[in-house]
Backbone:
């Protein structure tokens, strides 16, 4: 599992493999330079203690200063390169994640809060990049420092070197034990952050609804619960992980004290035995003490990196879990229709969003080319579900939906959806010019065609009153009313002129006078086109060819408006409920 994870992470670094090798070389040079400086200072101390020529001392200090400056410059360069590698990797990760979103089935997006997905792409990738930067800047430098110091120490005094090497694993084992227990806490922290992001996103995007329903106090209470839970989890994760540094520093201080004591004994005992392997000068002891401090420091840094990596691994696992979701496969091998009449037949269809909970049972329907079909019923009756099935946002569990003698399962999804025009109750306006919002990037339509479509949708007049007319930049939060935005959405369909239409309460946000004009425009648009109308206001569907009354996923009544009123059934009750005095 870990090998597979490392392999997947390395994929994002492959484009910068030469920079990666170069930065490792820089890390080795920087580490060796920092190791060599204590030797020069040790020699300087010996020069002073032995009362040697001052010029020798000056030369040693000059060399130490030069190496220090070069080391600092190389370290700065290494940081820049490492950051460049990681930021390019995170850019690739986010690009792939965004492409992934475009290919995910609706079933995944319906069952996962948008805030959770945003958290994965933004926060989790950020946390991973921070862990990788620490790994690149501290891990390789630390590793080189450890190996280099061991070699240099053995040349000075092998016995003290062994003492340092034997005692140091205590610090490593303690750090490993603590960091190992932090992973689950950081994983829980990442999950709870996603929940918090999802809740904030939901509240902010629906702030008008929150205020209209006086839900502010309740939403604050709910947020406090989530926030308190995250705070508790974060405190536990941070508390345990923060034990690493003081624990290892305590052990390292003991090691430093031991080296200082043993080294001082050797200096005093063998001060006149220069050829003795255990001989130590004052300068050499100073170098060893510096090494004892330097030798344990990389372990502290590496232990800190390992702790941060636990958090990063929890985040990257969530990222890869998202990337491993099944996508909507491209269906280039499936049939593409060039012309569609709009004859639709639904044969014995069963469907449920969960296979063990069937929502639609043995559904049958036959719609001829050009017919207008209204779909009515209470909330949860299956109206939106039927639309989802017609457009293959979901596939049926059993049965078949036939379009012009073609089972839609055998048709390319993208091609199938291109033959539908949809106007939904919820508007969607992108941050772009009015003309681009209507054309949706399809430049084959001229300005004259766009204006003609807008005139049919009765939005040409208010568009011309905008600051730059059809070139005015608009967005969801702009100065357009909900009704004006819905008219722009209607203009899109007027421009497209698809063979089949789906209207989901398409005039719900439009004033009554404009609605009457739009209904006339829709009559022209719907002429000779198969149309499905999801209706809540029953007054808008009186002239439909067929009215389907759905309840619990089944058609319980069907017929024209007059026929259904005569039956005095469920439709009759719904209609009268809307027009009771």
Residues:
């Amino acid at each position: 599992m870990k090998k597979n994870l490392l392999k997947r992470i390395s994929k994002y670094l492959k484009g910068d493999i030469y920079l990666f090798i170069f930065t490792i070389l820089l890390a080795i040079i920087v580490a060796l330079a920092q190791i060599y400086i204590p030797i020069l200072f040790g020699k300087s101390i010996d020069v002073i203690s032995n009362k040697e020529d001052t010029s020798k001392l000056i030369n040693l200090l000059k060399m130490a200063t030069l190496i220090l400056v070069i080391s600092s410059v190389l370290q700065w360069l290494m940081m820049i390169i490492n950051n460049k590698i990681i930021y390019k990797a995170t850019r690739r990760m986010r690009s792939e994640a965004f492409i992934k979103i475009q290919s995910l089935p609706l079933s995944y997006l319906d069952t996962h809060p948008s805030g959770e997905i945003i958290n994965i792409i933004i926060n989790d990738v950020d946390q991973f990049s921070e862990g990788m930067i620490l790994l690149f800047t501290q891990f390789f430098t630390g590793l080189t420092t450890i190996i280099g110091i061991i070699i240099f120490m053995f040349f000075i005094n092998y016995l003290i070197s062994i003492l340092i090497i034997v005692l140091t694993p205590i610090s490593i084992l303690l750090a490993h034990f603590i960091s190992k227990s932090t992973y689950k806490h950081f994983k829980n922290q990442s999950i709870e952050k996603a929940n918090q992001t999802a809740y904030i996103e939901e509240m902010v995007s629906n702030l008008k609804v929150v205020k209209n329903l006086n839900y502010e106090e309740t939403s604050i209470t709910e947020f406090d619960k989530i926030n308190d839970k995250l705070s508790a989890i974060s405190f536990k994760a941070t508390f345990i992980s923060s034990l690493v540094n003081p624990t290892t520093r305590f052990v390292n201080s003991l090691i430093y004290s031991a080296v200082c004591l043993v080294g001082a004994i050797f200096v005093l005992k063998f001060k006149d035995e220069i050829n003795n392997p255990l001989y130590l000068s004052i300068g050499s002891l100073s170098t060893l003490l510096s090494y004892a401090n330097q030798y344990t420091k990389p372990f502290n840094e590496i232990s800190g990196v390992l702790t941060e990596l636990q958090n990063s691994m929890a985040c990257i696992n969530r990222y890869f879990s998202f990337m491993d979701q099944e996508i909507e496969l491209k269906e280039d091998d499936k049939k593409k229709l060039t012309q569609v009449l709009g004859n639709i037949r639904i044969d014995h269809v069963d469907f449920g969003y969960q296979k063990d909970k069937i929502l639609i049972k043995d559904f049958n329907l036959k719609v001829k080319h050009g017919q207008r079909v209204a779909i009515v019923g209470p909330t949860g009756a299956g109206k939106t579900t039927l639309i989802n099935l017609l457009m293959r946002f979901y596939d049926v569990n059993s049965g078949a939906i036939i379009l012009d003698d073609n089972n839609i399962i055998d048709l390319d999804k993208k091609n199938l959806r291109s033959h539908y025009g949809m106007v939904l109750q919820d508007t969607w306006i992108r941050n772009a010019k009015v003309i681009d919002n209507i054309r949706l990037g399809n430049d084959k339509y001229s300005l004259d065609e766009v204006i003609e479509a807008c005139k049919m949708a009765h939005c040409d007049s208010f568009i011309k009153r905008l600051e730059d007319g059809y070139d005015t930049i608009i967005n969801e939060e702009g100065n357009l009313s909900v009704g004006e935005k819905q008219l722009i959405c209607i203009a899109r369909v007027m421009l497209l002129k698809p063979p089949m239409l789906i209207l989901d309460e398409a005039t719900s946000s439009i004033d009554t006078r404009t609605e009457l004009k739009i209904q006339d425009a829709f009559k022209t648009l719907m002429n000779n086109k198969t149309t499905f109308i999801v209706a809540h206001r029953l007054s808008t569907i009186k002239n439909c060819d067929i009215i389907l009354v759905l309840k619990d996923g089944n058609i319980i009544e069907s017929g024209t408006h007059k026929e259904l009123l005569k039956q005095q059934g469920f439709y009759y009750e719904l209609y009268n409920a809307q027009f009771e005095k």
Remarks:
- The longest helix spans residues 54-103.
- The radius of gyration is 36 Å.
